[in-house]
Amino acid sequence: MVYEQGEEVLPGAVHGHRLSTVVPSSVTGEVDYPLSDADLAFKLHYLRGVYYYPPGDVTRGITTKVIKDPMFPWLDDYFPVAGRVRRDAADVAAGEGGHPPRPYIKCNDCGVRIVEAKCDRDMAEWLRDEAPGRLSQLCYDKVLGPELFFSPLLYVQITNFKCGGLALGFSWAHLIGDVASAATCFNKWAQILSGKKPEPTVLTPENMPGHSPAGATAPRSVKQVGPIEDHWIVPAGRDMACYSFHVTEPTLKKLQQQAAVATGTFELVAALMWQTVAKIRGGVETVTVVKNDAAARSGRALANEMKVGYVEASGSSPAKADVAELAALLAKGVVDETAAVAAFPGDVLVYGGAHLTLVDMEQVDVYGLEIKGQRPVHVEYGMDGVGEEGAVLVQPDADGRGRTVTAVLPRDEIGSLRAALQDA
Amino acid sequence: MALCHLPLPRWSAQCRLRSMTATKGPLAPPTCADNSPPCPDVSLNPPILSRPQDHTLAYLPSEPLSLSLPRTHSLHSATRLGSTRLAARSSMASPGAQQLKQLKPLYQHVVNNFVAVLAAPVAVAAAITAARVGPDELLARLHALRAAHVFLAVFVPAAAATLYLMLRPRSVYLVDYACFRTKPNCRVPFSTFLEHAKLVTFVEGASIDERSVRFMTRLLERSGLGEETCLPPAHHYIPPYRNMEASRAEVELVIFSAIDDLLAKTGISPAAIDILVVNCSLFAPIPSFTDMIIHRYGMRRDVRNVHLSGMGCSAGLISVGLARNLLQVAPRGAHALVVSTETITPNYYVGKERAMLLPNCLFRMGGAALLLSTSRAKARFRLARVVRTLTGAQDSAYRCVFQEEDGEGHRGINLSKDLMTIAGDALKANITAIGPLVLPASEQLLFAMSFIARRVFGGGKFKPYLPDFRTAFEHFCIHAGGRAVIDELQRSLGLSDQDVEASRMALHRFGNTSSSSVWYELAYIEAKGRMRRGDRVWMIGFGSGFKCNSAAWECIAPPRNAEGPWEDSICRYPVDIPEVLKH
User: Fold this and answer.
1) Which entry of A187, A338, B9, B172 is 20 to 30 Å from B367 by CA?
2) Is B306 part of a structural domain of the chain?
3) What is the torsional sign of CA A328, A330, A331, A337?
4) What residues does the FAE domain cover (chain B) (predicted)?
């Protein structure tokens, strides 16, 4: 309420933010959650995911209390999410190297932040608008720092639309888990809400900090930044915005027909985006690819286990190349650098750092977040802390046949992107 | 009252470990997932004082508490925390003292049963005389008496007895009590409290600054509170809500659930309640709490309701006293519902004054509902005494706990620096008043002799005798005002760690719940299975004014089941409360 005073509320903007905190329902005790090298590689990025629930009787019954009550036992299982970042005072190597001590998560039950807000528009209208930057209105856009020790790792924003629709916006620090971990985590909360007993959360084996060789150069997929002190965001030189749009089934079918061999949907959509951005921007010879391989996951509930690699378009410029060709490259020609990225000791930007980043979210079950049996009508995941090169997240859509794509690009490129897509 | 002398490992605050199979650190403490019954009466402290009679080993305060005239003497500033220090008298080793120690129980039996001790030889002598005289001679003497004398000899005692029985005050019984059971969704861990304090910013521009946050951190670390204390839902917001709607919501949450529990336990219907007394110091809406209760439960039109506000943390015992008085003039067998609570929601202090930040850190959500009656049916306790002492006539005592606005206009409760001294004086006054009423004759005689000896022979030679209240009471419920208060009282009264365990553990688990804290402590003692028929309980409350109020109860029946606020957590207690909590 206080944040509103003195603020002019633009018509249609999200306003009336009220912050509160939810903690685990029982005492965790003195437990530390160590962060692996892979976790720390992603520390400068933040997932922003919004789930939209249509207006109706079920949604009307979803009050703040209904949303908050299951969070207490949920955080009992996911207690590292309720912790805070601390630095390991006993880190000897840091003292010698001159950089700040290694961070870890102190599981002190500090809690996650809940934000309640209102929007005076209808949800259908809001979705139809496809305004760039709508994601940042529905997800509380805070990052870790400048007060690192008091920054929550997760914000949940509950936005009520005028028509009765509900949007749940999750702001998740990538540090603690990748998008697959995040989606599973949120789905578990929904299961507790429905009264189902979810599977036990596995947080072992514990993350063991690796021993990284010093002085190596950054892998090609990522860009070295920093050194980052306590404010874990690298301000991009240009104003970045998230723009979400839908790739329809007919479009996918068309792309599939153009390809000579059977290619995965992610490769096709990503290739299309690669080509489009190359046309707008020029260049973009190399792209970073971040894939989620469900089979290769360790089964830990919170982990950063996405595969990071890069692809180089040999020969012709991607703007002129065939989508099918690029798709084939994406399928076969990825140089995997996951281990190198994790082992690199410095601070890096993975998404949008060195090159345009294409993120595969095909196997992430985002539509499984059912509240009281109500499936979300739309889900979009964007990202904060993306570098200037931009990122593209390819996600499943509501009926599973098309795809939702969120492009995180500099704001001035978004207009051109929209135009280009309309032509395609 | 035997203690189990089991060697137990010392471990810091027990908690339920999560499903992390690779656990950190040494042996994990046992969990209570199997719903095993409450642990037997065990103490983590070495068994210092195992029997209440063994008070010759009693701790003697280094600065003795004088119970004679209210004389100002400064007690130590209560920064000494941790376990009791035993200071044995240096003369303890001498054989004379050893003999005295052994004679003491005999002395107590003689003095406490003085009448019996006198009457027995007299009766024996009379019987022997009667036997020697012979039954015929006795009858002849009896016939010789005049009828009038015989009539008077029978009538006068009978009349006196009847008058006494009719005019004595009615006994008041506690049928049962119920405390508000805190919900885990109101839980406030340390780190959350501090983070909120940092983030609160008000439009007026007066933010809680860095120094205040550091001060609050130090306070919380040493406060004796645990990580499970609860604040009302309105205080989980940044900034916290302090409006009437939120305050009423808290009140309804706390007292309605406590009353529901009580009605379920006692089986009484709300229509059978004749008297309703509620106390809540800091929130007095219109209509009052009593009206809220009457409205919600549909009570009768002629219920005598009273709401006490502004009476401080000892108001719970004041309400009990008032209910007792009202029961004297109510019809026989009347029932009185007494509700003690404190509403936290409107009282979050947002300024920077250190003396006024302390209540923010210590006060937590809580409430208790009790049912008193003059009928003994189904009663569990008998109210023996209520003794109220007020020291408000003195300026320092009056201003000791003072609600006011600070320099920037923020309202809060200002606690003065000499709070401990004033509390000590108030306690002395209360002990002086309650001592003669509850202590056995042996202790009173010793105290009187010590008093006379000091007067006659001068104060230097004899130390004032500190009566051992453990001869009068088995259990002590000291208002959990804060760690310093409990430490100070333990020292002043010469109590063992086990005596104050209920207070410390209630402070750890629930925080300072103001007037209802004595009831949480009683619930702890009962949850631990230590309450037996005939046990006597002393409840001491302190509050603004400065008031020190006591109530003495005697147990008639122990609790029938394990329901209560400690249900889920009792198996983790007692815990070892560290001097400085790590967070």
Assistant:
1) B172
2) yes
3) positive
4) 164-455
> Per the domain annotation, does B446 fall within a domain?
no
Best B11, B195, B196 residue to mutate vs chain A (most A CBs within 10 Å): B195
Structural domain includes residue A6: no
Contact B20 A206 (CB under 8 A): yes
- Measured torsion, CA atoms of residues B305, B311, B315, B320, in degrees rounded to the nearest 10: -40
B332 in a structural domain: yes
- CB atoms under 10 Å from CB of B258, counted, come to 26
Domain span including residue B495: 174-438+473-572
How many domains would you assign to chain B?
A: 1
Query: C-alpha distances in angstroms, B269 versus A210, B179, B261, B263, B495?
Result: 67, 18, 12, 7, 41
In chain B, what residues touch A76 (CB-CB under 8 Å)?
A: 18
| Whole-number Å distance between alpha carbons of A188 and A200 | 10
Is B582 within the bounds of a domain? Answer: no
Q: What is the pLDDT along chain B (583 residues), one digit of tens a residue?
A: 333 333 333 333 334 444 443 333 333 333 343 444 444 333 333 333 333 333 332 222 233 333 333 333 333 333 333 333 433 344 445 677 777 777 888 888 888 888 888 888 899 998 888 888 877 877 777 777 778 888 888 899 999 999 998 888 899 999 999 999 999 999 999 999 988 888 875 434 556 677 888 888 899 999 899 999 999 999 999 888 899 999 999 999 999 999 999 999 999 999 999 999 999 999 999 999 999 999 999 999 999 999 999 999 999 999 999 999 999 999 999 999 999 999 999 988 888 888 888 898 999 999 999 999 999 999 999 999 999 999 999 999 999 999 999 888 889 999 998 998 899 889 988 988 898 899 988 888 888 888 788 888 876 666 677 888 998 999 999 999 989 889 989 988 889 999 999 999 999 999 999 999 999 999 999 999 999 999 999 999 999 989 999 999 999 999 988 889 999 999 999 998 888 887 7
| Option in B20, B227, B582 nearest A27 (CB) | B227
CATH code of residue A94 = 3.30.559.10
Reading the block at residue A389, the tokens are 């090169």
B253 touches chain A (CB under 8 A): no
Instruction: Measure CB to CB from residue A25 to each of B22, B184, B237 and give the nearest one.
Output: B184
For residue A211, is it within any domain?
no
Number of domains in chain A: 1
Q: Which residues of B39-65 are buried (b: 16+ CB within 10 A; e: fewer)?
A: beeebbbeebbeebeebbbbbbbeeeb
| Structure tokens given for B90 | 């240096």
With an 8 Å Cβ cutoff, are B15 and A20 in contact?
A: no
In a domain? residue A7:
no
d(CA B362, CA B377): 39
Block residue for tokens 């923020």 = B410
Residue type present at position A202: V
| Residue numbers in B near A147 (CB within 8 A) | 198
Residue A238 belongs to domain spanning: 14-206+223-423
| B429 phi and psi angles, rounded to 5 deg | -60, -40
Residue A153 lies in a domain: yes
Pairing of strands A403-410, A240-247: antiparallel
- Per CB-CB distance under 8 Å, the chain A contacts of B580 are none
Specify the DSSP element, H or E, that contains B57.
none
| CA distances, A142 to each of A47, A148, A244, A333 (Å) | 11, 12, 20, 36
Here the CATH number for the domain that contains residue B231 is 3.40.47.10
Cβ(B171)–Cβ(B382) under 8 Å? yes
